[in-house]
Amino acid sequence: MTTIVARDTIRAPQRAGDRIFSTATVVAGSLILAVLAAVAAFLLVQSLPAFVATPADFKGDAANFWAYVWPLAFGTLWSALLALLIAIPLAIGIALFISHYAPRKLAQGLGYIIDLLAAVPSVVFGLWGIGVLAPLLQPFYTSLVEWFGWIPLFAGPVSGTGRTILTVSIVLAVMVLPIITAICREIFLQTPVLYEEASLALGATRWEMIAMAVLPFGRSGIISASMLGLGRALGETMAVAMVLSPSPQVIFALLTSQNPTTIAANIALNFPEAHGTGVNILLATGLVLFVITLAVNMVARVIINRRKAFSGAN
Amino acid sequence: MSKRIEVNDLNVYYSKFLAVEGVSLTIEPRTVTALIGPSGCGKSTFLRTLNRMHEVIPGAYVKGEVLIDGNNLYGPGVDPVLVRRQVGMVFQRPNPFPTMSIGDNVLAGVKLNNRRMAKSDADDLIEKSLRGANLWNEVKDRLDKPGSSLSGGQQQRLCIARAIAVQPDVILMDEPCSALDPISTLAIEDLIEEMKADYTIVIVTHNMQQASRVSDRTGFFNIAGTGKPGRLIEYSDTTTIFSNPSIQATEDYVSGRFG
Ligand SMILES: Nc1ncnc2c1ncn2[C@@H]1O[C@H](COP(=O)(O)OP(=O)(O)OP(=O)(O)O)[C@@H](O)[C@H]1O
Ligand SMILES: [Mg+2]
């Protein structure tokens, strides 16, 4: 073997650790794709009969599948959106309090309680929604309709039980709060001291420092956390099914007894009695939920990437 | 704009640990003062007490007085936030906000005081500050790019521009050139020389040539042993410290015999 040949054949030595690790990551990565593909394929195949179903197959008076699923899709997005509108500011506030305001001991205790909330089963939240929250909010809803009924969102007649889409959204907000808070807290704690000090040295107050350094750094993390919360809100079944008596239609009014329901709750309510094409229809609504979730996450990715150069990651 | 700093018998603590003990000195306006000394002797700690930045570290506190034009920084009712608007700081590692454009970085401190600024005023201030930091020609065509898109030396000058944009009375610099190449270092030294006309500057450095090149007065800090507090050993004109110091330890340090 000449020197030149030897030089040509120089290669990085293959270390066992590297190979095991890279194989493991490739396997893990493919596995998640395979599972996702399998779920999608199952849903797609099972859904096909729903798209050609006759009006008689649908519960209610929908003429075809799209007319059937549209109010459900609306209810799903509407309740999840309301839940996030309530949960995100609250979660950011709590996370900031824990990471930047509270004394260390209190912060630890609070963080622990928040994490505990995440472990409460959703049935419990449903019961809490029916038994505590709805009656508690009902008088408040009544005055809201009385005073602000002219705003379409708060149009009457007010629900007598308090079991409205707004109550559901509040329950959902409480359910997604822990995950969003926990992630935001971790993100805020990771803010480089370098930049916190930079803003303080410019004469920023604590809040200004947060607005200048902590939140911009946490931006993509806050979006990711919200997406995880959104995923849970979109897919939540029990709490919604328990609180709402559905009347599937597109209604924006928050406080009436006519409320849209969600795809997941609708499946849970109707699955026990469904048979034949009915099952296919429910599975097809599941497919729609799947697509909605995918689309929402892609939008979030786009938002995160849009200002990548300014993310602070480089 | 430039102000006089007087420190009287200052002790700095990290919780129970006494890090710096008994510092008294006077810094005249429109001068550059260099602080030198071995690692861990409390130079950064002391420097940060001049704009109350040490209070950012939990448990850190001082005893003693720091007077700026006669006003005690640690007097009752003094707001550290206002102190820091008066006494700016440049850190060892360049830290422009990567989440902001170059232009916004310059305005970051100004916007705290004065949120609504006419666009033309803002542009003027950006240009003036960047010119003041000798950076204008290099970045004028890319003011909207992120602050992190600059080289290390440029980033440090951007930080200086950001500090002078708020027109402080005093500028503190903690080893501003330690992460930079010799050319950028010289650029910043020239800049310090020019800024002296308007500001009182205090700079910590490990570079003896730098101290002798840029400063009018030099303070030598030392520490008796690990766990002991740092002290100001000698404080005098820079030429005296480097050519004819009155204390043996200073002479040993500046001539490179220890530390
Ligand atoms: N955040 C802190 N908490 C507790 N002790 C600290 C802290 N920062 C510094 N110290 C201690 O205070 C003393 C002085 O540290 P300081 O950083 O001021 O030294 P320095 O002179 O700036 O050193 P260098 O030249 O290496 O930067 C050291 O003993 C150090 O361990
Ligand atoms: Mg230091």
UniProtKB/TrEMBL annotation, chain A:
Signal peptide: none annotated. The chain crosses the membrane at residues 20-45, 65-98, 110-134, 140-158, 165-189, 281-304. It is a multi-pass membrane protein. Pfam families: BPD_transp_1 (PF00528). One of its GO terms (cellular component) is plasma membrane. GO terms for molecular function: phosphate transmembrane transporter activity. Keywords: Cell membrane, Membrane, Phosphate transport, Transmembrane, Transmembrane helix, Transport. It is found in: Cell membrane. One of its GO terms (biological process) is phosphate ion transport. It comes from the Bacteria. Residues 73-300 form the ABC transmembrane type-1 domain. The keyword ATP-binding does not apply. Belongs to the binding-protein-dependent transport system permease family. CysTW subfamily. Part of the binding-protein-dependent transport system for phosphate; probably responsible for the translocation of the substrate across the membrane. This is Phosphate transport system permease protein. It comes from Cryobacterium fucosi.
UniProtKB/TrEMBL annotation, chain B:
It comes from Cryobacterium fucosi. One of its GO terms (biological process) is phosphate ion transmembrane transport. Keywords: ATP-binding, Nucleotide-binding, Translocase, Transport. Pfam families: ABC_tran. One of its GO terms (molecular function) is ATP binding. SMART domains: AAA. Residues 5-248 form the ABC transporter domain. Signal peptide: none annotated. This is Phosphate ABC transporter ATP-binding protein. SUPFAM superfamilies: P-loop containing nucleoside triphosphate hydrolases. InterPro entries: AAA+_ATPase, ABC_transporter-like_ATP-bd, ABC_transporter-like_CS, P-loop_NTPase, PstB-like. It comes from the Bacteria. GO terms for cellular component: membrane.
